[in-house]
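Appendix B, record 7
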Amino acid sequence: MKNKMRKLLLLLLVANTSLMGQEIIPLKYDNTGLEYIGTEIKTKSNSGIGHNFKNISIPTLQVFLPEGQSQPTTAVVVCPGGGMRANAFFHEGLDVAKALNEKGIAAFVLKYRLVPAHLIGENEGLNEPYHKEKKQLTYGHLDALNAIAHVRENAAKYHIEPNQIGIMGFSAGGAVSIEATYKATEYNRPNFVAPIYPWMVIVEDQAPPAYGPPLFVVCTTEDRLKLAIPSAKLYIDWAEKNFVSELHLYQQGPHGFGMRKTSYPVDNWFNHMIDWMAAIGMLN
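Structure tokens (predicted):
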């Protein structure tokens, strides 16, 4: 009986590992200036589905490759949100990776470094001037750049096209993706970027980078963090430079919708992004 239980547990573990991704890559990092106590913390998500992570001190990249690809494919680094304090790993991470894989796109879900948990008060909200979050972005965007570099360095291994590597992020993850885009070098720059309801208040005000990667922005007017206008301004920054850019600003839909259904038109955002990627030549 015990042997049967062990075999069953092993099968469940293998199945779960398959669903969760083929590989987890630790990224290089330097925590000088940060004061972590304890290990990574797993918590229940606000939606009650799946879980979030807090106190991430070691950045990792989880690999999700589509099945049955006969030619090199597009890749996307996915940055979940969470106010630089948590990582919404399911509806802004794993669910996104699954949807990308279904479209034949390789996905790499990033767990970037977060504000050390002990520095956040139990009932402390997100309030200006966001010192902790802005400081953390200076570390988190490096994790995103290292993620892009890793994917590009291993393009042959993952069977992807090295000039079709994008980055997308949700809320604080959108800030991570945009800051990485601004600060990228020739080797770790994204070929396109898709900030979804990006939390631009923590991003340093700066001009679009000269290489001008194609930009796809999504937000809703009723977003409770009032991210619609900053999202529109981001689009305008790109459009004024005549860079490839597209903005989808819906009226209805809560902040943090991710891959969850809202029964509003915003539910179409993901398919619109895929159509846009195809239209700009970023899908084979």
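Remarks on this record: The domain at 39-279 is CATH 3.40.50.1820 (Rossmann fold). The chain is about 35% helix and 20% strand.
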